[in-house]
Amino acid sequence: MRYKIEGGQLPVVTIALERGESIFTQSGGMSWMTDGIAMDTNLKGGLLGGLGRMFTGESLFMATYTAQRDGQQIALASSFPGSIVALEIGPGLE
Predict the structure, then answer these.
(1) CB within 8 A of 37, min separation 6: which ones?
(2) pTM of the predicted model, to two decimals?
(3) What does DSSP assign to residue 82?
(4) Are the beta carbons of 11 and 78 closer than 8 angstroms?
(5) H or E segment at 90?
(6) Could you give the CA distance from residue 64 to residue 77 in angstroms, rounded to a whole number?
(7) 3-state secondary structure 11-75
(8) Coil, strand, or helix at residue 5?
């Protein structure tokens, strides 16, 4: 998985996925994607997790995007000004 963060006050992150790689985000976070990516909507964390997200202003549902072919791309952007920061997660913290 490779990514590129672009933009100033309204940033976007473009993610390149290889076959079988997946990401998940709240529903409505995707700006665009290539045609080789499958989307599945679900309640990550179960009903209580979804309700907890809903009460904090996020979406009840989460979307999982999985590349069906190598070299597929998906872009995620915020709907309000801010910044996107890359954080490295070490082994055992995933």
Answers:
(1) 17, 65, 66, 67, 68, 72, 74
(2) 0.73
(3) -
(4) yes
(5) none
(6) 16
(7) CEEEEEECCCCEEEEECCCEEEECCCEEEEEECCCHHHHHHHHHHCCCCCCEEEEEECCCCEEEE
(8) strand
With vertex at residue 41, the alpha carbon angle to CA 92 and CA 84, rounded to the nearest 5 degrees, is 55
| pLDDT tens digits, one per residue of 25-38 | 876 678 899 999 99
Cα–Cα distance between 54 and 8 in angstroms, integer?
28
Report d(CA 51, CA 30) in Å as an integer.
Answer: 21
Q: Which tokens belong to 56?
A: 């904090």
Which tokens is 10 given? 């309204």
Query: What does the pLDDT look like over 40-81, one tens digit per residue?
Result: 887 665 555 555 555 555 555 778 999 999 999 999 988 788
